[in-house]
Design brief:
alpha/beta; 13 helices; globular
């Protein structure tokens, strides 16, 4: 049974009491470019908005421990599930999952909510998609944070050049089998991409697996990574990354860099310095305990870092003015 065929979309409450207790927010939905996008929108409506953007194969639940310090700081916190993940609609067609389409979905949400003075927080694929959306609506952005992400064609991560596991996971036949039928990404890959694996097993793993219930729903988990520029002969998004890097290099927004010490995909020693080369004014690098999904290990600490940074660069006034 395909839950996306139901008249009523699934909400956070439908995922069971454990998820609802850890992610105690109201499910909201927007129509973005013909797709149903799930998001939460918490805090005062006239407060500066903080947009928390996830990557593959997670959803808004990843930010659950980051959110409270931002709300305590008086901010409006908006966390969308990118189309294809979480409680958003899961298009089964590859054509829906280009980098441009995902960026356009975020732009549509920003426009529908009328957001202004946005603090963009970008993690993993939330980097290329979120930064593309930021460049499209630069007049609405006031600050940016990057975590375990990138915005350039070369050099790609050494991890992504390995035959095992990366290239095997994304081979034409083996990739759909492992990532689709075997649910490798929301299951084993997520489990292996944190430091405290017993905690994620008890606290989060089911929340990631249960929202991608069948093979078609997991399409984005193997489609999105094929846009990572690795081989110039086969790149399908190389020009888009060239455009993205040129754009972010021109940004003069207040910026901060947060990274996991144990990161194995976008390693701290190779990738964080690149952000400081692009943005010499950026704060950090703030190192926290964490592998690729560093929010699972250090969510509250990351929330405190973001709230402190925002307090200096995106202050909240009593009237909610920016």
């Amino acid at each position: 049974m395909n839950p996306w065929a139901d008249a009523r979309p699934r909400t956070i409450g439908d995922l069971g009491p454990h998820v609802a207790r850890r992610y105690p927010f109201e499910s909201r939905f927007a129509n973005v470019n013909g797709w149903r996008m799930h998001y939460i929108d918490e805090g005062p409506r006239d407060a500066p908005p903080v947009l928390l953007l996830h990557g593959n194969p997670t959803w808004g639940y990843l930010w659950r421990d980051v959110i409270p310090p931002l709300l305590a700081g008086g901010y409006r916190v908006i966390v969308p599930d990118q189309v294809g993940f979480g409680l958003s609609e899961h298009p089964h067609a590859a054509s829906a999952h280009s980098l441009d389409n995902h960026a356009a979905n975020l732009v549509a949400l920003v426009d529908q909510l009328g957001l202004d003075g946005i603090f963009f927080v970008c993690h993993d694929w939330g980097g290329p998609t979120g930064l593309s959306a930021l460049l499209t609506r630069q007049e609405r952005a006031v600050a940016v944070a990057v975590m375990s992400t990138w915005a350039w064609r070369e050099p790609s991560s050494e991890f992504h050049r390995r035959v095992m596991p990366w290239k095997t996971l994304h081979a034409p036949l083996v990739g759909p089998f492992l990532s689709g039928r075997q649910a490798a990404f929301p299951g084993r890959t997520t489990y292996l991409s944190v430091v405290d694996r017993e905690r994620i097993r008890a606290d989060a793993l089911d929340a990631y697996v249960s929202v991608l219930p069948d093979v078609g729903d997991r399409r984005l988990t193997w489609q999105w990574p094929r846009s990572i520029p690795i081989d110039p002969a086969t790149d399908i998004a190389g020009e888009r990354f060239d455009w993205l890097e040129a754009g972010v290099r021109k940004l003069k927004l207040p910026a901060t860099v947060i990274w996991g010490r144990e990161e194995v995909v976008f390693t701290a020693d190779a990738f964080a310095p690149r952000w400081h080369e692009i943005w010499p004014h950026a704060e950090g690098t703030h190192l926290v305990t964490g592998n690729h999904f560093l929010q699972e290990d250090s969510g509250a600490e990351i929330g405190d870092l973001l709230a402190e940074f925002a307090g200096r660069h995106v202050p909240v006034t009593e009237e909610g003015d920016r």
